[in-house]
Amino acid sequence: MTNPSRLGEDIAAMRQRDPAARSNLEAFLTSPGIHALFWHRVAHWLWRWEWFLLGRLVSHLSRGLTGVEIHPGATLGRRIVIDHGMGVVIGETAVVGDDCLLYHGVTLGGKNAASRNEVEGRRHPCLGERVSVGAGATILGPITIGDDAVIGAMSVVLKDVAPNSLAVGIPAKVKKRIRHP
What we know:
Layout lengths: L3 H14 L6 H7 L1 H17 L3 H15 L2 E2 L4 E2 L4 E2 L6 E2 L4 E2 L4 E2 L4 E3 L16 E2 L4 E2 L4 E3 L3 E2 L4 E2 L4 E2 L7 E5 L2 E6 L4
Parallel strand pairs: 1-4, 2-5, 3-6, 4-7, 5-8, 6-9, 7-10, 8-11, 9-12, 10-13, 12-14
Antiparallel strand pairs: 14-15
Helix pairs in contact: 3-4
């Protein structure tokens, strides 16, 4: 159902990105982001096997325990870090790439049924790999956030963001291109 090595990857990613996580055991026992990812994998497995109600129930219970709401239909990559977690919402058709970092209060939401991406059938955002999303940021609709992009805290993103870009504001605008070593 869920791969134990994924849990190990989650813990390692949390330790790498969160200086407050002093040991693997501490990260495992006290990180709501790790707990939410674990329970999402269970719910997603049920969802893929078309046990929709059971998947939604697992997701609902996880939200109550962690404060993180991830729809069981959402597709999440590897080594995602949900730091602090409270108030994070990830919608049904959202896609989050590998090695992303989401802070508390992040929403990956849909605008409405009419905004569905006709090609991919998505209503929610797609985050590339290594995307960082600041606290309280809201990303809405079937848009794409490119690899290595950074979304500033409290920003509202309504349009695609190119790879290696910093987007901030309401509505978010690209302020600069980020150079990676």
